[in-house]
Amino acid sequence: xxxxxETTGMSRALARxxxxxxxxxxxxxxxxxxxxxxxxxxxxxxxxxxxIAFSHDDLQLTGTVNGESVQIPFxxxxxxxxxxxxQLMADLARDxxxxxxxxxxxxxxxxxxxxNIGTRRIKTRAGTFxxxxxxxxxxxxxxxxxxxxxxxLGFAPALIEQHRKGKLRLEASxxxxxxx
Length: 180
Fold this sequence. Notes:
The protein is mainly beta. The protein contains 2 helices and 13 strands, in the order βαββββββαββββββ. Helices cover 8% and strands 60% of the residues.
């Protein structure tokens, strides 16, 4: 799965660049199993690049973050920033989302608390949809992220909102959707 975020409209006057993330994962009886994750972030102030491999034999994440070698132990199931979205989509499709997920985020594992905040109609360049809001927050963080997921698109996120201390800081919306 490849996710790309880039600035559009008025936001281009404030920021240039993009975030591109690539995840390789497999599916087994327990759900998704991340295998590889890479990210290149040229958009945020903390420009980051990372390439990580998930070794499920010895439960280690190995690779590089900003050119530095890393080796981090993990406890399954742990997802990366892309595969966690697909696991959540699959869990919603089966009507069994968990209330807590573990996610590797660049150089640490975070525990995310998940909350269903209801439904609303959203409008994006890709269309207008009825979407279910799933909010997550990592332990000890003042930042919350809400994914507005569209059932007719297999619970793909059509709108992502990020709030810090109650204020909207980032909004990303779906511009194109292609199922392979």
